[in-house]
Amino acid sequence: MSIEPNHFLEFRDNHLLSQLVGPQDRYLLQIEQRLGVVLALRGNRVNINGAEPEATFAQNALQFLYNQLAKGHIVEMAEVDAAIRLATINSPALNGGSDTDETGSEISIVTKRRIVFPRSSRQGDYIEAMQKCDMVFGVGPAGTGKTYLAVAQGVSMLLAGKIERIILTRPAVEAGERLGFLPGDMKEKVDPYLRPLYDALNDMLPPDQVLKRLSNGEIEVAPLAFMRGRTLANAFVILDEAQNTTPVQMKMFLTRLGNHSRMVITGDLTQIDLPSGIPSGLKDAMHILENVDAIRFIIFDEKDVVRHPLVGKIVHAYDENDKKRVNPKNA
Predict the structure, then answer these.
(1) Phi, psi of 228 (to 5 degrees)
(2) Least confident segment among 12-21, 260-269, 307-316
(3) Rounded to an integer, what distance in angstroms lies between the CA atom of residue 148 and that of residue 150?
(4) Taking every pair of C-alpha atoms in the chain, what is the biggest distance, in angstroms?
(5) Disulfide: which of 28, 77, 171, 314 matches 244 by Cβ 3.0-4.6 Å?
(6) Torsion 201-206-211-212 (CA) sign
(7) Do the beta carbons of residue 99 and residue 124 sit within 8 Å?
(8) In this structure, are residues 257 and 237 in contact, taking their beta carbons and an 8 Å threshold?
(9) How many Å apart are CA 264 and CA 141, to the nearest integer?
(10) Rounded to whole angstroms, how far apart are CA atoms 250 and 282?
(11) How far apart are CA 163 and CA 297, in angstroms?
(12) d(CA 321, CA 327)
């Protein structure tokens, strides 16, 4: 005796359906494991069995992923995880609500190697802010796409001719390591520390173009100290790991903004590596600039983590532990 499925979906395009289920049905298995449902592929139909609301979450996630494929987007495991997360929090982005701006146009970032779309409602707000505002702060835990999306936006504007160069910078503060003991000259010492920025660039542009643009100055990756005394005009400027700036460094950086330029400042206030007693320039700036017009602050939390699902749980566990330290009576 067969059991009727709670839900089912029928898909017209078998080619898109094969991309939806993934290699060896990997994407269906991921949805099953994450939501505790059973998915069965029958021809061009996917049957969904499971308790509610998980069965509905699975149906919504599958429909969202299929719609993304129909628009020409690439679906990989990260997109499957994002769809599950959006479904379980009933995000408007699942139905296109936060993936469109006030004109109804879809929010996205177009680069040479891929089209980048928001994977959470707050990511949609972040992309929209970077496309419209001259200065944007993206603040929140690791894995929320703050730096990745900023680099993507910079590359998109460079390719479109809206800016002349991209400048990526970080404060040279070690997270428990000592750069001075590394071999080589200053560039060789600092380059490994700036590796995440290079990785993001290589995701957006072919490697030969990254090297060419680095050599001709269209893309510059440098420690924050190299920004002093400069006026950064016609540029998209990203300050990464901004929680490790001092207030003096942050003021110096922000006042480098020149004509026809945009700045994005990213950081995580839970990962400050400054010596004890030195205040964070990011925290200071958020307080001082909170009422300044034309500056946008996008604050992410663990619900916006788009890396491995375990990362979100780790961030949440650390946040809860920090709360117990502040209020030991609640422990």
Answers:
(1) -60, 135
(2) 307-316
(3) 5
(4) 77
(5) 171
(6) negative
(7) yes
(8) yes
(9) 16
(10) 7
(11) 22
(12) 10
pLDDT tens for residues 95-137?
554 454 443 345 667 677 666 777 778 888 999 999 999 999 9
| Rounded Cα gap, residues 312 and 42, in angstroms | 34
On whether the CB atoms of residues 17 and 44 are closer than 8 A, the answer is: yes
In this prediction, residue 2 carries a pLDDT of 45
Residue type, 199: D
Q: Which two tokens stand for residue 147?
A: 């730096």
Picking from 151, 167, 140, the residue whose alpha carbon sits closest to that of residue 315 is 140
Query: Of 229, 136, 226, 210, which Cα lies nearest the Cα of 166?
Result: 210
CA 145 to each of CA 37, 113, 152, 270, 301: distance values in angstroms, whole numbers, following the listed order: 29, 17, 10, 16, 11
Count of residues in the chain: 331
Cα atoms in the Cβ-side hemisphere of radius 13 Å centred on 147: 22
Contact 119, 79 (CB under 8 A): yes
Which amino acid, 308? H
CB atoms within 10 A of CB 41: 14
